Amino acid sequence: MCGILGIVAHSPVNQLLYDGLLLLQHRGQDAAGIVTSERNSFHMHKGGGMVRDVFRTRNMRSLPGNLGIAHCRYPTAGSAFKVAEAQPFYVNSPFGIVLGHNGNLTNSESLKEEMFRTDRRHINTGSDSEVLVNVLAHELEQTSVKLRIDPSTIFAAVANVHRRVRGAYSVVAMIAGYGVLAFRDPFGIRPAVIGYNETPAGTEYMVASESVAVDALGFRVLRDVAPGEAVFIDEDGRFYSQQCAPQASLNPCIFEYVYLARPDSLIDGASVYETRLHMGEKLAEKIRRQYRHLDVDVVIPIPDSSRPSALQLAAGLGVPYREGFVKNRYIGRTFIMPGQAVRTRSVRQKLNPMSMEFSGKNVLLVDDSIVRGTTSREIVQMARESGARKVFFASAAPSVRFPNVYGIDMPTRAELIAAHRSEDEVAREMGADALIYQDLEALKDAVRQANPRLTNFETSCFDGVYVTGDVTSDYLRAIEIHRDAARDSGEDAETAQLDLNLAA
Question: How does 486-497 read in b/e, with b if 16+ C-beta sit within 10 Å?
Fold first, then answer.
């Protein structure tokens, strides 16, 4: 999961790009980068850390130009940040191209070899995003006429990218002297939305991971980038789009609605907040149907993403909703923090319980999901230490039992608490008196209620079905073997993941 942003305007875009990254900061806290274009020159600044730490006034002054792209990175595994992995990536041949990418390529190893042996391009890092920018550059060279390109040749190049690349990818790129390009994989796994702004000088355009960046920057949502579609906005603000994949279908990652996206965003036409309300309603229905014996005194959310679900759950059960944890907002999201030890330590720094809401009560805690179980175990213990008589735990998502290879940090089954355990076993492992998971079909229905046109979803972390069709058991086993070997040798987890070219 990463945040991407591209803007073509009629005035300097550096501040807009910076503000947009702040709005997408929840999608990645590991690194950030901005590239602007002025005439035929690129101006780039990127580095490790939060957006506010990467950019200073002097950096912003060095980013002139009316078009640009930006990226904030989330580490799909591990703890060590590598400067070379910060995005956007740049290539200078045959065209100057910068590219930012959200997602994971599943065939990057074979592509890397193919690029070196056949295309004569060298990939210098372990990032699949560098593979992607080189594939795009090569295909632009092949489709160009005397090294001149136009929208039709750009779209032909993207069609060839789709033909060669597998996995999940939403992309923003900028071609020196031409404009900003955005495209989305043929399965529409990772999100991308188009915004526009009418000005006296003409229409300005934006492409972003989430609609919250569009709204808050004063733009209006035009539509989502369709699966397999490419959008190109030239330097003069002319907008072009074309479907570049012959067999495209929309399969948005359902975890965007569960956890990844901000509640005030629209993802493929569905309000994230509304879907989370429906998740709470579905949980209430399940508890009334299967867990009527639980004597719940109070419903307490694990802030922040579970609040809408907990609110509707409490209303559906007819029990009080209370805020039992105070959140330190200066601690990052623990799910996307690099390193298990850091996640564990940060839980108690991040959340502080209020004993008056727990003491002597049967408490139903509600979280958006349970991945590794580390956070959940700590929170259950905190509730007991605060005087709770019984602690029940409800997850707005089903049990996470399979790796995610499309851009979320769920790399191996060994790290997932529910992978080889029953519901009762997970409850005991967490120290909870009872555990209630959302049913997968109920989760899908919760999202469809917000947008009935959504029929299919990417749900591999719950059911082990990989929509791209190229993720085999041998592929998943290779990841596990490589990561196990890395741990045995003392290599950090991120290095292992990057060596497999799964970090985007």
Answer: beeeebbbbbbb
- 91 touches 137 (CB < 8 A): yes
Alpha carbon dihedral 113, 119, 122, 127, in 10-degree steps, equals -60
In angstroms, the first-to-last Cα distance of the chain is 8
Q: What is the pLDDT of residues 97-123, one digit of tens each?
A: 999 999 999 999 999 999 898 888 888
CB 26 within 8 A of CB 329: no
- 443, exposed or middle or buried, with CB in 10 Å at 0-12, 13-18, 19+? buried
Beta strands in 291-433 (DSSP E): 298-301, 325-327, 351-353, 362-367, 390-395
Q: What CA–CA distances, in Å, run from 503 to 93, 119, 127, 311?
A: 24, 23, 6, 35
Q: How much is the pTM?
A: 0.91
Q: How far apart are CA 315 and CA 297, in angstroms?
A: 13
CA of residue 363 relative to chain centroid, distance: 31
What are 177's two structure tokens?
């002297």
- pLDDT tens column, 434-481: 999 999 999 999 999 999 999 999 999 999 999 999 999 888 888 777
Burial of residue 282, with CB atoms counted within 10 A of its CB: 0-12 exposed, 13-18 middle, 19 or more buried: buried
Ramachandran class of 281: left when φ > 0, alpha when ψ lies in -120 to 50, beta otherwise: alpha
Q: List, by residue number, the catalytic residues.
A: 2
Confidence of residue 492 (pLDDT cuts 50, 70, 90): very low
